[in-house]
Write a structure and sequence with these properties.
With about 250 residues, the protein is of the alpha/beta class. The protein has two domains: about 70 residues, 60s Ribosomal Protein L30, Chain: A (2-Layer Sandwich); about 160 residues, Alpha/beta knot, CATH 3.40.1280.10. It has nine helices and ten strands. It has a six-stranded parallel beta sheet with strand order 7-6-5-9-8-10, with helices on both faces. α5 links the parallel β5 and β6. α1 packs parallel to α2.
Length: about 250
Amino acid sequence: MSDKTNTIFGIYPIKEALKSKVVFDKVFVQKGIDSDKIEGLIKDLEKENIPVSTVPFEKLNRLTKGNHQGIVAVTSPVSFHSLETVVEKALAREKAPLFLILDQITDVRNFGAILRTAECTGVDAVIIQKTGGAPVSGDTVKTSAGAIFKIPICKVEHIKDAIFYLQGSGITTLAATEKTNSEIYDVDMKTPLAIIMGSEGKGVSKSVLGLVDQKASLPLLGEINSLNVSVACGAFLYEVVRQRRQ
């Protein structure tokens, strides 16, 4: 086990960690490995809804220098919250709820920076998908400046389901995208709101864009046609703060 990298490697250490209710972020299994013990462990992990990804041998070697036996788990420094619970709590408060949905943000530094800004702007919870996003790791803790311990993080099977649930709870969903003529300054952000930020390369996915209530872009006045996602997220969140303080 390596505390420095928040990894557990090897069949029996991972099995014992699972029994001890250690919070896993994701598990990586060597591609093509033939092991009944690993197959059994994968079934136990999947019963607990822990994401398992098949990766090349070299990926496991990069994660740890120990004898990983074909399986490496990345643990989480925080426990995750139920989406239903955080929504109910937010709706019970006097202020309008504010949620942040991250659609496949993969860079740990962006993820940490977003968490830091989210905590500073009063976001009620950050919602991420179980697979495909940046790990909740020690690096996330560092770049978030500890904000990860102060803001609830909800892991969901699918972003779409979270959007449907929020909409059904009376919360407007707003996607940050350049594929619209509406700017953030044209949108009423004083109502219960969930902002969706997309991945570094592709932005908010097309399937998600087709579900949201509203879309908004940031005005870009220079020659570069995009912003870093954590910077764009900060601009959106502070526009919410500005409007709600008026």
